Amino acid sequence: MQSLNPSPEFIVVLGDSLSHYTLSLSKEGEVDPVQNKFLVRQSHIEVTDLLSIHFPNTQIVQVLGNNDGYANYKKPTEREAAQFYDFLFELWRPFTPISSSFYDGGYYTTHTKDFFLVVLNTNFFSVRNEESKDGREQLNWLDEQLEHDQQTIVLLHIPPGFEMFNWGEQTWHSSFAESFIRIIQKHQDHIRLILGGHYHNGGFQLIPGTSLGVLLHNSLSGIFFNNPGFRKYTYTPDSLDFSEYSLDLLDSSPNWKYSYAYSEFFGTLSLEEALEVEQEEVFDQFIAKSFGFSEPNELMWKVATNDTQN
């Protein structure tokens, strides 16, 4: 990343900074809860320190993923919440402005030179948790934050729709997903991007009734047999593009290499526009390339278009 640009304007970390193994230790009884909290906090510190050391002049924006707390997918207990959110607020604040809403549940707004960023905590929406007023309050907050005409990027970890894991199970409670879609439809004119993670592979998930999609990103971890990857975004007032770089783990001497650019497939078209005019073969190639596989998979297409019923 440094060789491409030693001082990018900002870096986005889309969640799950912690090792999956760290959380499994406490689950298996190999560490006690106090040690687990120490491991979680220390992991956040080390990730933030590494980014700030290698990119000292860059704004760093981090998102909470399902592996980033004291238990997988779970928000901290009421007793733990204040200390946990205060710890992350103080750790991340030197590298980006953070709104006070962070203390309500790890979601916040910040801004760059050209964009207003809305950072969600999608653990509240996950079907792995009970449907609660906390999720509804965050969505009401999202609606309020988008009541402006600033160019906006929405950041999240778990996208709505259907899982690439567990063979197409739903990711969010239906009421939360439906509310999110209505909010995005309402404010779509000034939303420039929606960026997501979670699946460890690239791709996209379309937002019905809009020209937007959640652009998904490869992880730096290869734990799910994916090649690690990251993206470099470039933008002007009239155009936006990204280039993907990946590390082939099957190579005897792996090096980071350029993989593809969005514009190579679709030029300046949005995902919705591209669907209308491009041949399906082009999308097959894009999906295969972004997921890191040589051949497209039927489930990939269904997940991307939220069509797991057929």
Description:
The chain is α/β, with parallel strands linked by helices. Helices cover 35% and strands 18% of the residues. It has ten helices and eleven strands. The chain has helices at 20-27, 33-54, 78-92, 102-105, 133-145, 174-187, 262-266, 271-277, 280-291, 298-304, and strands at 10-13, 59-62, 108-111, 116-119, 152-155, 191-196, 203-206, 213-216, 229-235, 240-247, 256-261. A six-stranded mixed sheet has the order 3-4-5-6-8-7. A three-stranded antiparallel sheet has the order 9-10-11. A two-stranded parallel sheet has the order 1-2. A hairpin with a 6-residue loop joins strand 7 (203-206) and strand 8 (213-216). It is globular and about 55 Å long. The chain starts with 9 loop residues before the first strand and ends in a 6-residue tail after the last helix. The mean pLDDT is 85.
How far apart, in Å, are the first and last alpha carbons? 40 Å
Q: Describe the sheet with the most strands.
A: 6 strands, mixed
Rough outline: globular
Mean of residue pLDDT values: 85
Number of strands: 11
Tally of DSSP helical segments: 10
Low-confidence stretches: none
Assess the beta-strand content as a share of residues.
Answer: 15-25%
What's the gyration radius in Å? 19 Å
Largest sheet strand order: 3-4-5-6-8-7
Order of helices and strands: EHHEHHEEHEHEEEEEEHHHH
| Sheet/helix structural class | alpha/beta
